Sequence to fold (396 residues):
Amino acid sequence: MSALPRAHPADPGSAVNLEELRATEWPWTTRGDVIYLNHASTGPIPARSLRAQQEFGARRAEPWRISYDDQFGMLHRVRKLCASLIGAAASEIALMVNTTYGINVAARCLPLEPGDVVVSSDREFPANVYPWMALERARGVVFRRVPCRSRLADEDALLAALDTPRVRVLTISWVSFETGLKLDLARLGAACRERGIYFVVDGMQGLGAAPVDVRACHIDLLACGGQKWLLSPWGTGFVYVRRELVTELEPHAVGWMSTRASEDFTRLCDYDLTYFDDARRFEVITLPFQDIAGFEASLAMFHALGLERVYALVAERAAQIVECASAKGLRLLTPPDPERRAGIVSVIPDLPDVASRRLQGAGVIHSLREGAIRLAPHFYTTAEEIERALRLLVGR
Fold:
């Protein structure tokens, strides 16, 4: 893995020269024909991660070159890298291929009975809706969606819903895919812990853009894919399961490497359904190792850059969009309070469809979601790119 480009002496206060990093890891940024503001949809993987995938794929073509450490040592390293993003331990991390599978771990493994209530907000991303709807159909639980207020999740109403009878689970997105609203996980988590309610979080639109501490927020399970803000390949992700909860939950999908007996490949027919006492019990091997190699490279880059610096840069770019949009008279769907947002800023211009086509035609890559233009810059996005995109958005 190549080293990150170092800062020049004229670049004080930064461990990395971002201009050089852009040219090295995302060489398409040097062409100037694309402004990429769509990290809430798909994060462009850096060159180092693409190389890691390709190098692993080349060894896969000659599989005798792949060592045990290439596969399973890598999985251990990636669990540690994921854990360090959220203040967890590697033993609380199970690697998954997407967010949805992690949400299904929560839906299918938590001890819920017919009539138990699962509370969520309305207007959630479908990955945090359909698993619970399916559970309602299969097991007779009640899935209750709390109405939003002006399209924003209503924290006060969610808290009030926790005091209704038989509520066992609160499941929410940390950051809304639609509005960019960032919920107060510490507040919600504390309320759940006081009431003995499981707290499940979809971290997809927050991790890689903003900090979170799963212990301080009393989170029981958190699921996150790698392909958006973590700038990693499709088919990567993880679920965090609080350590005290790991051994209480039975896997709903049992993998051949979920058990202690799988550690000895020379005696696989000595069957023993004794699960690992860590989160590996929830993994279903075989994982896409070549993509996990890219995941490792991207996560290592985040840590080498410094997570606090990454988050500060994302916040700076989001704030720039908020300020520019407000100055240009655009309606903000995302809260202007920096404590209530992460990297997504959604704005509603006149004729959103027309504005979206204008942006797309000028090479400003974004999303049109529920009638709003969703802009999602990352740490390597420049201030000049934001300014150009906002000028195009208003048509002047």
Confidence is low (pLDDT under 50) at residues 5-13. The two ends are 43 Å apart (CA to CA). The CA atoms of residues 36 and 365 lie 5 Å apart.
